[in-house]
């Protein structure tokens, strides 16, 4: 057990080092700008005195190192700066825009697990047979689809041609007008379920279908592929042959013996998935007018709102580092890792 | 005198037979790889597909000079649906989308290849050095790598492209900078086990300088998984570049880049479906081919799939 | 004549690669009676493991291919059975296997105890407390120290000798009456080898199982087995009782093999007689399989040699029938 503790401590330290490194890189990135941040802050019709004042306020006159430490100090307090576009504190804007994105990320990851893993498993078991080929073509297709495009394509088919599903947004204007929108946790679906507001729930679900499909395809394909390749390797191991020789049912061999050995790969893939999904939202939300971080950052990119871009980058990086930390610790539960 | 002559004669003949042995071994390897590749129907189709792509990439710029694409605008023929004259229809400036999509082929492939190659050039040597020397050097390089890998994929590319200024070149640079760590990690993992092998220790024992060992033994032996990953990454690079262009961070108008075309079509596509569908399909098929190529390569390279039964 | 307990008839197994089709096993006749210990001696690459895996149909079927033949257990051809039938009726139930390399044949992420319990559940439908008791019993039977702790250990926490005993325990706990032991002591030190072999022999006497003992070591086979067959490049070149085959070898290969073991410090070994079987030189088609290495070649050797009886139960696939001139 102390082995495990050692490992966790080492891993935590590593995480902190990496965190500092990531923040440093982002900081220097933000200072690479060709134009003067102060001038951008004040706007195109500012006087030189206003620009100078802004420079002072934003602390741009201090030496770079000092700026760096102020940057870190602000981060610790949760201050990510202010958006150039909206003038609001970025951290509060992020807090507001995070839940809808998290909804999509959770559902996509969930689908990736319950569809991707069994698909990969069966594919590996029936290797080179028709089912395997079909599933491989599906998963290769899924990871080759440009995420931004599939969203548009789905809109084309289901909204334009079939008139079956809405174009975008979380809710219809009509629904927002007639019904009271619950706001307990910020997660719309959850709130609807908690408050029992089924009319809003139905509308919310309808609006969620297309963005979810667009975001989930890549993770499902990725998980299926990686599960399949991990399992193909595991299934060729001698201990699987041995288990079969003892007469153990194929079902048990697959789901018990083989799957247990793939914990490491599964965790790694999952983290990758969540990270990728988070960033995919940048591409998809704008198309669906989904009020999440993705839309926030794509607007930021278009309007060259550099503080906002930095803010989202840092936030995503920190979340991803924590995620990886947790995944690594779970992987360490595998007895072999701590040998 | 005579002894020396004999020595050199023997050396030469040994060198020659050694060379022929190596050549024979390499030919044998190629033969086996080719057999394995073409045995599988899927990989055979993939090979043909990739050849087809490269054919387009090479021929199209010759047939259709770039100026023709740029000055192709014809305001009388805006938003024409696909027809025999305009196979993929026309866009908001009356340009022939078919020609633009074809042209985009070589653009995408070239930019993807360059990005991945550069990332390899940085990542592979670093990984070999880290794995071979171990110790402090290893820690240093790997922590550095970890920092870069701590960003979700694509995020760093977006940030870099945003801050360096939107352009195709910066998008390529962004990809290189965010991707080299993956190769470093793969190569380092391989190097760590290769450096324990007998032939490496032998080379060390006879006094080969460390960088010689890395160059001649470590890198060639660790390159297999890298090649597999890199082929799939060419597809990934095409996806990333088109995504960056979609966001406005990559190719700028009027470049006929697929992602940019999809982005421009956003305003119009509900009424002009062909504008977004064809460039998107182009991305899809191209990426799919490279992904399948990577898969096929992995099957050949994996020693387990060639395992004996007894 | 009563049906033999176990019989292999005209079994041909091929291996397909980019080089073409290669025959790795060609056994025309092999019979084992109930309760016997039957030894098969062969070098690396002679097809020993192929034989072992083939019986339970565990060969990897692309590259591998069973071209023809029958494997009869109590008169029933088990090669015809579907994988499901095999799992339900044969594997573990009637035939079980002791593997060669205990490190790779134990599941690294399951404790020894849970692996044993899995097999117990499958073959005897035991669960929970009963299963744990049985698992403890078998661990004690294979003479492992500190059985309680061993059950809770993971394979990598045990030594080579301990792991090998676990593999044996796993094969035995199936309760099958026919055990295939594929080089069960290959990776062990000599002192541990002796212990394991004594154990197998003891268990065989007390539990009355039939054993197919595969090895590359004639010494072990002579100590353990009633009958022996010599495998060369997938063909049986000599078979009979152990005494017959190993004391008075009649096939040039057997002779060369046995002479390769130094009997004393002054015993000279003529290396020219012991060219390894697996150097890729193809044999002549339709001729004696051992032609290229035989020190006794004649024109008659260019015809395919079949096993012929040269007295009692002793068979040799050589027209000379054991008359060498050396």
- Estimate the helix proportion of chain C, in percent: 25-40%
The major beta sheet of chain C can be summarized as: 8 strands, mixed
How would you sum up the major sheet of chain A? Answer: none
Tell me the β content of chain A: under 5%
Number of helices of chain A: 15
Shape of chain A: globular
Plain-language structure description:
- The complex is a heterotrimer of chains A (about 350), B (about 300) and C (about 325).
- Chain A is mainly α.
- Chain A is about 75% helix and about 0% strand.
- In chain A, helix 13 (about 265-290) packs across helix 14 (about 295-300) and helix 13 packs antiparallel against helix 15.
- Chain A is globular.
- The model of chain A has no long low-confidence stretch (mean pLDDT about 85).
- Chain B has about 300 residues and is mainly α.
- Chain B is built from 11 helices and no strands.
- In chain B, helix 2 (about 40-65) packs across helix 11 and helix 6 (about 155-165) packs across helix 7.
- Chain B starts with a helix and ends in a 9-residue tail after the last helix.
- In chain B, about 45% of the residues are buried.
- Residues about 305-310 of chain B have low confidence and may be disordered.
- Helices cover about 30% and strands about 25% of the residues of chain C.
- In chain C, the strands form 2 sheets. Chain C has an 8-stranded mixed beta sheet, with helices on both faces. In chain C, strands 2-1-4-5 form a 4-stranded antiparallel beta sheet.
- The radius of gyration of chain C is 21 Å and the shape is globular.
- The two termini of chain C are about 40 Å apart.
- In chain C, about 45% of the residues are buried.
- The model of chain C has no long low-confidence stretch (mean pLDDT about 80).
- Classes of the chains: A mainly alpha (about 350), B mainly alpha (about 300), C alpha/beta (about 325).
- The interface of A and C includes residues 244, 256, 257 and 339 of A.
């Amino acid at each position: 057990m102390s082995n495990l503790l050692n490992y966790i401590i080492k891993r935590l330290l590593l995480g902190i080092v990496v965190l500092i490194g990531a923040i440093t890189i982002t900081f220097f990135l933000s200072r690479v700008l060709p134009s003067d941040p102060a001038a951008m802050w004040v706007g195109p019709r500012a006087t030189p005195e206003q620009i100078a004042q802004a420079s002072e306020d934003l602390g741009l006159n201090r030496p770079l190192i000092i700026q760096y430490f102020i940057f870190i100090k602000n981060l610790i307090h949760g201050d990510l700066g202010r958006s150039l576009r909206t003038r609001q504190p970025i951290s509060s804007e992020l807090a507001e825009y995070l839940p809808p994105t998290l909804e999509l990320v959770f559902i996509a990851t969930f689908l990736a697990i319950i569809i991707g893993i069994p698909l990969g498993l069966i594919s590996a078991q029936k290797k080179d047979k028709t089912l395997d080929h079909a599933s491989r073509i599906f998963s290769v297709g899924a990871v080759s689809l440009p995420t931004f495009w599939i969203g548009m394509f789905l809109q084309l088919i289901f909204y334009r041609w079939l008139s079956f599903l809405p174009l975008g947004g979380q809710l219809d204007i009509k629904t927002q007008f007639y019904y009271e929108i619950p706001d307990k946790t910020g997660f719309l679906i959850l709130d609807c379920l908690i408050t029992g507001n089924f009319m809003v729930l139905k509308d919310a679900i309808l609006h969620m279908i297309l963005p979810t499909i667009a975001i989930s395809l890549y993770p499902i394909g990725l998980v299926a592929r990686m599960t399949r390749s991990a399992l193909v390797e595991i299934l060729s191991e001698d201990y699987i042959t041995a288990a079969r020789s003892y007469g153990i049912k194929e079902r048990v061999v697959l789901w018990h013996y083989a799957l247990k050995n793939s914990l490491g790969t599964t965790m790694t893939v999952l983290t990758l998935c969540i990270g990728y999904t988070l960033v995919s939202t940048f591409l998809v939300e704008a198309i669906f007018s989904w009020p999440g971080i993705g839309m926030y950052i794509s607007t930021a990119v278009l309007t060259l709102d550099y503080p906002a871009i930095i803010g989202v980058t840092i936030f995503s990086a920190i979340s991803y580092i924590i995620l990886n930390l947790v995944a690594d610790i779970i992987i360490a539960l595998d007895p072999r890792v701590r040998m | 005198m005579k002894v020396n002559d004999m020595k050199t004669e023997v050396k030469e003949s040994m060198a020659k037979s050694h060379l022929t042995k190596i050549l024979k071994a390499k030919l044998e390897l190629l033969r086996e790889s080719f057999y394995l590749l073409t045995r599988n129907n899927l990989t055979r189709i993939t090979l043909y597909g990739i050849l087809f792509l490269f054919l387009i990439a090479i021929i199209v710029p010759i047939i259709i000079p770039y100026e023709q694409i740029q000055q192709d605008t014809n305001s009388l023929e805006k938003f024409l649906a696909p027809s025999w004259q305009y196979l993929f229809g026309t866009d908001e400036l009356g340009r022939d989308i078919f020609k633009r999509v074809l042209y985009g082929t070589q653009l995408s492939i070239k930019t993807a290849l360059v990005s991945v190659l550069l990332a390899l050039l940085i990542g592979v040597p670093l990984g070999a050095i880290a794995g071979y020397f171990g110790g402090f050097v290893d820690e240093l390089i790997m922590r550095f790598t970890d920092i870069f890998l701590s960003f979700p994929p694509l995020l760093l590319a977006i940030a870099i492209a945003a801050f360096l200024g939107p352009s195709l070149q910066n998008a390529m640079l962004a990809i290189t900078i965010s991707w080299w760590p993956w190769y470093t990690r793969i190569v380092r993992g391989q190097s760590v086990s290769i450096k324990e092998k007998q032939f490496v220790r032998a080379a060390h024992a006879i006094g080969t300088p460390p960088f010689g060992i890395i160059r001649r033994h470590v890198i060639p032996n660790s390159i297999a998984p890298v090649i597999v990953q890199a082929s799939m990454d060419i597809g990934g690079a095409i996806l990333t570049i088109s995504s960056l262009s979609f966001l406005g961070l990559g190719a700028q108008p009027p470049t006929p880049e697929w992602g940019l075309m999809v982005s421009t079509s956003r305003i119009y596509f509900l009424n002009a479906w062909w504008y977004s569908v064809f460039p998107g399909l182009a991305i899809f098929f191209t990426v799919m081919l490279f992904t399948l190529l990577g898969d096929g390569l992995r099957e050949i390279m994996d020693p387990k799939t060639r395992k004996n039964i007894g | 004549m009563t049906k033999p307990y176990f019989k292999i008839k005209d079994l041909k197994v091929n291996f397909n690669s980019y080089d073409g089709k290669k025959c790795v096993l060609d056994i025309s006749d092999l019979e084992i009676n109930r309760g016997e210990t039957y030894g098969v001696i062969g070098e690396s690459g002679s097809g020993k493991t192929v034989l072992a895996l083939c019986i339970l149909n565990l060969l990897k079927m692309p590259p591998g291919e069973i071209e023809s033949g029958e494997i009869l257990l109590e008169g029933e051809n088990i090669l015809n059975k579907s994988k499901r039938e095999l799992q339900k009726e044969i594997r573990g139930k009637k035939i079980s296997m002791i593997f060669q390399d205990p490190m790779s044949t134990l599941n690294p992420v399951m404790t020894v105890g849970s692996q044993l319990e899995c097999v117990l559940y499958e073959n005897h439908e035991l669960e929970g407390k009963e299963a744990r008791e049985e698992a403890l019993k078998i661990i004690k039977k294979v003479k492992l120290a500190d059985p309680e702790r061993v059950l809770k250990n993971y394979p990598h926490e045990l030594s080579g000798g301990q792991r090998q005993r676990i593999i044996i325990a796993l094969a035995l706990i199936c309760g099958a009456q026919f055990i295939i032991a594929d080089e069960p002591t290959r990776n062990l030190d000599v002192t541990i080898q002796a212990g394991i072999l004594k154990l197998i022999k003891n268990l065989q006497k007390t539990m009355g199982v039939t054993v197919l003992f595969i090895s590359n070591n004639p010494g072990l086979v002579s100590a353990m087995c009633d009958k022996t067959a010599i495998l060369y490049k997938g063909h049986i070149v000599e078979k009979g009782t152990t005494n017959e085959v190993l004391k008075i070898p009649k096939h040039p290969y057997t002779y060369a093999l046995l002479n390769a073991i130094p009997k004393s410090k002054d015993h000279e070994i003529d290396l020219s007689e012991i060219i390894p079987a697996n150097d890729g030189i193809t044999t002549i088609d339709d001729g004696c399989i051992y032609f290229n290495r035989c020190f006794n070649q004649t024109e008659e050797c260019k015809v395919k040699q079949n096993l012929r009886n040269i007295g009692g139960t002793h068979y040799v696939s050589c027209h000379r029938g054991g008359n060498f001139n050396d």
